């Protein structure tokens, strides 16, 4: 059962992130509350992954540090990421079976040993891997590994799930499977925040869109409005398929 508190809303107030002399995020302010998926788009190097890491609470240990501004989760600062999960673009599989990977995630989430078998089976069924529970995780296909990674992320019973380019290396069939799962997770009440380079995917999944360019959020709108009537020159350029430099 979830605790009564939540990490939402997540609020960034004038946050800057630097790595050495390079500014990765430049005075970013935003508020993430409950609702449908928020999708981050923008060219490579725009700051999408760093922003996800800041929202998760992974900095300053991942190649940069917050040099100014404040971050709060549910009105609190420095909250351990117990209620948040992160799905990386290239997940690492433990040298265990698929179900062993899930049991390990459940153990680290503090789930009691007597509950783990049932919870692990339920999570594997949720992502369509129930029949592959005993297969070594590293022998699964790329799409299957990404589904397993999603199940591991959900083992923490998160209120917020961050996804970094979750379908970037997948074929169309595997991409559709992951997108369907993301939609189902969002429909279950988990706040999904996702970075993608794929405008088609953003159209299919986003409830609202944030466009990043050079470490700044240059436009933030409901998805329907963003795609129908972008307000910034950068958004019009990006949606036209032209290079945004």
Structural overview:
With 245 residues, this protein is α/β, with parallel strands linked by helices. The chain has a single domain, classed as P-loop containing nucleotide triphosphate hydrolases (Rossmann fold, 3-Layer(aba) Sandwich). It is built from 8 helices and 9 strands. It has helices at residues 48-56, 98-108, 113-126, 142-154, 172-187, 199-205, 223-228, 233-239; strands spanning 10-19, 22-32, 38-41, 65-73, 84-87, 160-164, 191-195, 208-213, 216-222. Strand 8 (208-213) and strand 9 form a beta hairpin. Helix 2 packs across helix 3, helix 2 runs parallel beside helix 4 and helix 4 (142-154) packs parallel to helix 5 (172-187).
Question: What key phrases describe this protein's structure?
Answer:
single chain, 245 residues, alpha/beta, Rossmann fold, six-stranded mixed beta sheet, three-stranded antiparallel beta sheet, 8 helices, globular
Shape: globular
Q: Can you summarize the main beta sheet?
A: 6 strands, mixed
How far from one another are the termini? 46 Å
Question: Which range best describes the helical content: under 10%, 10-25%, 25-40%, 40-55%, 55-70% or over 70%?
Answer: 25-40%
Enumerate the strands of the largest sheet in spatial order, edge to edge or round the barrel: 5-6-7-3-8-9
Write down the overall mean pLDDT. Answer: 93
Rg (C-alpha, Å): 18 Å
Number of strands: 9
**Poorly predicted parts:** none
Please write the string of helix (H) and strand (E) elements. Answer: EEEHEEHHHEHEHEEHH
CATH topology group? Rossmann fold
**The CATH homologous superfamily:** P-loop containing nucleotide triphosphate hydrolases
Indicate how many domains the architecture comprises: 1
For the record, the CATH class is Alpha Beta
């Amino acid at each position: 059962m979830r605790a009564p508190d939540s990490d939402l809303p997540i609020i960034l107030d004038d946050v800057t992130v630097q790595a050495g002399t390079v500014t990765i995020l430049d005075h970013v302010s935003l508020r993430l509350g409950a609702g449908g998926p928020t999708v981050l788009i923008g060219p490579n190097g725009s700051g999408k992954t760093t922003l996800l890491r800041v929202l998760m609470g992974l900095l300053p240990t991942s190649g940069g540090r917050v040099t100014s501004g404040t971050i709060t989760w549910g009105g609190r600062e420095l909250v351990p990421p117990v209620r948040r999960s992160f799905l990386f673009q290239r997940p690492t599989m433990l040298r265990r079976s698929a179900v062993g990977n899930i049991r390990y995630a459940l153990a680290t989430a503090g789930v009691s040993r007597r509950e783990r078998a049932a919870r692990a089976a339920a999570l594997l069924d949720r992502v369509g891997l129930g029949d592959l529970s005993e297969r070594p995780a590293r022998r699964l296909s790329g799409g299957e590994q990404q589904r397993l990674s999603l199940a591991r992320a959900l083992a923490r019973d998160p209120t917020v799930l961050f996804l970094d380019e979750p379908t970037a290396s997948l074929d169309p069939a595997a991409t559709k499977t992951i997108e369907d799962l993301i939609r189902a997770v969002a429909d279950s009440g988990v706040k999904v925040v996702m970075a993608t380079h794929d405008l088609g995917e953003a159209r299919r999944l986003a409830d609202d869109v944030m466009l990043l360019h050079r470490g700044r959020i240059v436009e933030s709108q409901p998805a329907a409005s963003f795609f129908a009537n972008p307000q910034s020159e950068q958004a019009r350029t990006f949606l036209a398929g032209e290079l945004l430099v």
